[in-house]
């Protein structure tokens, strides 16, 4: 598998279990790329939905993807603090300037005070039936949800206090290079 390089502009492609495209983020700047981790950032990037509708992200975001964990974490930098949106998803794959993953519907929203809400459980159950998710997916996602919730409680990974500061600084560096 190819590895994205720091400073590279990539697209993020989200798919559903049936192989259909779900959502595409047009431009995201890679801040760190290894075979296991991609940390990237975007701001006011065009997003295209599967039905062709488009919208533009509102705030700067630091994105964390892992090749072994079944979730990805979007850290949204707002005036009143950092909000996190986590997609329960397959680990990422990367090729031809595209980072790809399968979105498994379940989401977790984390607020600046580290309280959280699990979202879209009904959508997960519906798609599980419609797309015939294997039982193994259910087990993997539940185990990874537990792991994610422990990261939030322990403030590990992207939830660590210095994570946002370090990667926001790196993102500003790359923005200045491209201006």
Automatic annotation (TrEMBL):
Leading EC class: hydrolase
Spans traversing the lipid bilayer: none
Cofactor(s) the record lists: Mg(2+)
Ranges of residues in domain DUF402: 18-156
GO molecular-function terms, A-Z: magnesium ion binding; nucleoside diphosphate phosphatase activity; ribonucleoside triphosphate phosphatase activity
Catalytic residues, chain numbering: 23
Pfam family, one: DUF402
This protein's UniProt keywords: Hydrolase, Magnesium, Metal-binding
PANTHER family to which the protein is assigned, alphabetical: PTHR39159, UPF0374 PROTEIN YGAC
Name of this protein: Nucleoside triphosphate/diphosphate phosphatase
């Amino acid at each position: 598998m190819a590895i994205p390089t720091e400073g590279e502009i990539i697209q993020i492609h989200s798919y559903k279990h049936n192989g259909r495209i779900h959502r595409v983020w047009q431009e995201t700047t890679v801040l760190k790329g290894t075979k296991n981790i991609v940390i990237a950032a975007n701001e006011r990037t065009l997003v295209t939905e599967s039905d062709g509708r488009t919208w533009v992200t509102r705030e700067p975001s630091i994105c964390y993807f892992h090749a072994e964990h079944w979730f990805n974490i979007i850290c949204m930098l707002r005036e009143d603090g950092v909000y996190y949106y986590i997609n329960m998803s397959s680990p990422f794959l990367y090729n031809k300037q595209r980072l790809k993953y399968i979105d498994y519907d379940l989401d977790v929203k984390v607020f600046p005070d580290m309280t959280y809400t699990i979202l879209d459980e009904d959508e997960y159950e519906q798609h599980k039936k419609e797309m015939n998710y294997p039982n193994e997916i259910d087990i993997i996602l539940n185990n990874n949800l537990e792991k994610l919730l422990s990261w939030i409680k322990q403030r590990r990974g992207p939830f660590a206090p210095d994570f946002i500061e370090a990667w926001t600084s790196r993102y500003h560096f790359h923005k200045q290079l491209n201006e």
